């Protein structure tokens, strides 16, 4: 049962059981199924996407509202604050491992598998029988030419612009943090809305990039190993930017409502940690996926 301890108590607050994690999972699964079906050309319509997105956003805001009420109600002690810090740290570490696996898949395909398919290290030269004429060069759609010929997206175009946008957003949220610690709430709110605008701009440009890739470059999920790794890495990063932008909006609205103090604002700090993580991952994506 939830604790009703007074503010600044040292008792550890345990929230009541909630159905939000399960409902949010349903929304996210519906979204993934809908997007996957759309990309694969299945005829189930856009309804699962809209339902999943609407449900996910609704639950996220309801969930955050509950946490905000607990925090402003004085239910969190110093021990709870430490728990949140450790929890967010381990969550970001798990995200590092998540993207590390995808970067590892790209490295394996590009630096190990592709040369082997081209005959590197082969004493029997079986590649000449299995796929004669195959050129082990990157980007590749594999020996079977899966998805047909395609073009890649130049690094020094939209990807570079998105890199500048995310790096700028890292600066604006840092300025917002400094303003909050100095109790300059209006400046903090303005810097936060600037960060939100940059996040939305990034997502808009990435959506435009995907449309261009699918409609004009023939770069799709079916474009062999390059298409798979490209959309896997950039797509999951885009999902993280989307979640991060929602979190930024929530925190900004809380600031406007008078929440957070200069010396007690881990809700803000946790979102800032997450946003900086998203920035760092994108830099790796820009260099490894687009540039090299």
Automatic annotation (TrEMBL):
Organism's domain of life?
Bacteria
**Name by which UniProt lists this protein:** cytochrome-c oxidase
**Start and end of every Heme-copper oxidase subunit III family profile domain?**
8-292
Organism expressing this protein natively = Fontimonas thermophila
Q: Keywords, A to Z?
A: Membrane, Translocase, Transmembrane, Transmembrane helix
Transmembrane segment boundaries: 12-35, 47-65, 86-109, 153-174, 186-205, 225-251, 272-291
- Which EC number(s) does UniProt give? 7.1.1.9
Which InterPro entries has this protein been placed in? Cyt_c/ubiquinol_Oxase_su3, Cyt_c_oxase_su3_dom, Cyt_c_oxidase-like_su3, Cyt_c_oxidase_su3-like_sf, Cyt_c_oxidase_su3_a-hlx
